[in-house]
Every structure is written in C-alpha cells, then in structure tokens.
Specification:
It is flat, with a radius of gyration of 25 Å. Helix 2 crosses helix 3 and helix 3 packs across helix 9. The protein is built from 14 helices and eight strands. It is of the alpha+beta class. It folds into three domains: about 40 residues, Helicase, Ruva Protein, domain 3 (Orthogonal Bundle), CATH 1.10.8.10; about 160 residues, Tetrahydropterin Synthase, Chain A (2-Layer Sandwich); about 130 residues, no CATH class.
Length: about 350
C-alpha cells in the first residue's frame, strides 16, 4: 500500500486535527492506512481531536416505536437527500409507517425489508410510490428491534438526529419505574455516546491500544500545563477496570501506604482516613476509558453526583440493562455529498 499522498494527508488532517508533517509521517509509518495512521497519531499524542469520520451527515430522520406493553421497541433511520424533505409532514408520516412495519415484520436489514409486503404490495414498490409523491430519493437505511419477556424497553430520539433504545430486566413490581428510568438513561446515552453497556464488554486489545493513546494525550497536556505554570494531571497506569486486578490494586495500595508512612504520618490515620480516599482517586484516574465508553461507568447527566450504574441501583436493585443500541443520523456514510447520493442511487437500484 502506498504511503503519504496529498489526498491522504488532507483526509488525515481533517480526521485528526494533527499537523501536516505529523500526518505525512503517520501515513508513511502505516503504509497509507488511514485508520492505523489515526491510531498512530493518538499513541504519539499528536491527534488534536477525535473528529467524526463522516462530517457531512445524510439528511432524514431517526424514529422509534415502543409497543403498548413496553416489551418491544424499534428504531429506524430513514434518509432523504435534503433537510427540507426531512421536515415535510409526508416524510415524517412515512418514517413512522416504516418503523411500525419494521416492528411488525421483525426485519433488521434494508435488503430484507425491500422484499416484505406492505399495504398489498412489495415494500420496494411502496417506497417508490412515496418517492414519486414526495419528489426525492428516500432510503430506509438502518433498523433495529429489541424485545424482552421479563422486563421492559424504552427509547429516546433527540431532534430526529440521534436515537437510543434500551432493554432491561427487572422485578414485576419495578416495571413502571424501570420504564421511566430507561427513558432518562436513553437521553443520557444520546448525549454521552457510550459504545458498550459495561466496561466488561470492551475488547482487551482495544483497551491496551487506548491505554497508550490516553497516556500520550495526558503527557502532551502536561507539557502545556508546565509551560503555563499550572498543576499537572496525574498520568494513569491503566485506563479500565478490566485491568484493575486484585494484585494491581494491592500493589498500588502498598506503594501509597509506604509513601505516606515515610512522610511521617501515623499508621492508624493513614489506614483509616487517608488511604481509602487515595485508593478511590487512583481507581478513578485509572478507569478513564470506562467513563468515556461504558454506559454504566459514565457520570449520569441527570445527576452528576453519581454514575449511571448508581442511578439504576438507587431506582431499583433488580434493574439490569441487557441491550443498548444507538443510531446517529448519517453515521458511517461517506463524507462527500456526492457519495451519499451514489449510496441512495445504489440502494434504489437493488
């Protein structure tokens, strides 16, 4: 694979916010692979910001439908070519009808959806009729349905642009409380963008890679803080609770205790008053990736004095979130608008 080219350098700069020479070096190091180059920049502390890979979003709407018994919830992303059409009442009603049809049929891919029957005709013919009426190409691009037999579901859509659906198990007596809570947790997830429910769901190789990147980012920040004469940030050894084995915690605790005793502090004061707080802070510093990506570990936007996990436990101890899906309008579509038009045309031709 070729290394750095002007086109690849420009694309990597837009994605990473890094300087031109750094992008050129990263691409040469990674033989022109954009994803590997982004990670290389992150591990060197050279990436300025984690920008969205698709910075020109498709238009359209994300919509959800919760069944009356709160046992099943469906979410769809239906794309249009212009924001004007996305705000059209006919298009809004179309998205609702498609979401209802997806829930009824249980399909999970656009190819399968096209072969279903709706209102006495194939879905493909039905959609073509709507396109002729509305006057713009439309694609039912993404869809997902989750259900439960021993709990409840709920979801939330923000401005038609971001959608979240959740399922949780719970005791029978807690179903109403759980339904209300899931709506709030869905609102949280729409804003905070977790990728997994629990830190236990994070891939070990991914954690190891991010460990390097997060440390590099903090080291770079500290260089600037030194220049400004401000207090430095703690550099963690780990980034996820997956890495915090009993041995790792015991080692950290022993080192802290020895340091405090060496400073002349009484053992009883150290053990009962100082050490517990320092360990809590150490764990917080060494689980930064969990707070970024794991829903349960994130600070709850409705009450920043607790995590999402703590908020759930306070609502009812029986509640366990078991499924989580988040859609963001246009996510995964190529950056260039002409590429989106080609995607629409390709799907229309299927």
């Amino acid at each position: 694979m070729a290394g750095a080219t002007p086109k690849l350098i420009k694309e990597l700069r837009e994605l990473s916010g890094a300087g031109m020479l750094d992008c050129k070096k990263a691409l040469n190091e990674c033989e022109g692979d954009i994803e590997k180059s982004q990670q290389w920049l992150r591990e060197q502390g050279l990436s300025k910001a984690a920008k969205k890979s698709g910075n020109v979003a498709a238009e359209g709407l994300i919509s959800i439908l919760v069944s009356e018994d709160a046992k099943k919830v469906t979410m769809t992303e239906v794309n249009s070519q212009t924001d004007f059409v996305a705000k059209n009442e006919q298009f809004i009603n179309l998205t609702k009808e498609i979401t209802s049809h997806v829930q009824t049929t249980g399909v999970s891919e656009s190819e399968s959806l096209a072969k279903t029957t709706i209102n006495g005709t194939t879905f493909e013919e039905y959609l073509n009729g709507k396109i002729a009426t509305i006057g713009e190409n439309i694609v039912a691009r993404k869809m997902a349905t989750i259900s439960t037999d021993n709990g409840v579901v709920n979801g939330y859509v923000h401005m038609g642009k971001v959608g979240v659906i959740l399922a949780a198990t719970c005791d029978e007596a807690a179903k109403d409380r759980t339904t209300d809570l899931l709506k709030k947790v869905a609102m949280h997830a729409a804003s905070m963008k977790p990728t997994v429910i629990s830190y236990k769901d994070l891939d070990a190789d991914f954690i190891a890679s991010e460990n390097k990147a997060i440390i590099a980012d903090i080291e770079k920040e500290n260089e600037e803080l030194v220049r400004l004469g401000k207090p430095l940030k703690n550099i963690p050894q780990f980034v996820s609770a997956q890495q915090l084995t009993d041995d790792a915690i015991a080692t950290a605790k022993a080192e802290m205790r020895a340091e405090l005793i060496a400073e002349g502090k009484p053992e009883k004061v150290v053990d009962e008053r100082i050490l517990p707080g320092k360990i809590d802070r150490w764990i917080e510093d060494n689980t930064q990736l969990d707070k970024q990506l794991a829903l349960l570990s994130q600070t709850y936007v409705m009450d920043d004095s607790k995590t999402v996990e703590q908020a759930i436990a306070e609502c009812d101890a029986s509640i366990q979130i078991v499924e989580y899906i988040r859609f963001e309008l246009g996510e995964g579509i190529e950056k260039k608008e002409e590429d989106f038009a080609a995607e629409v045309a390709a799907q229309m031709g299927n």
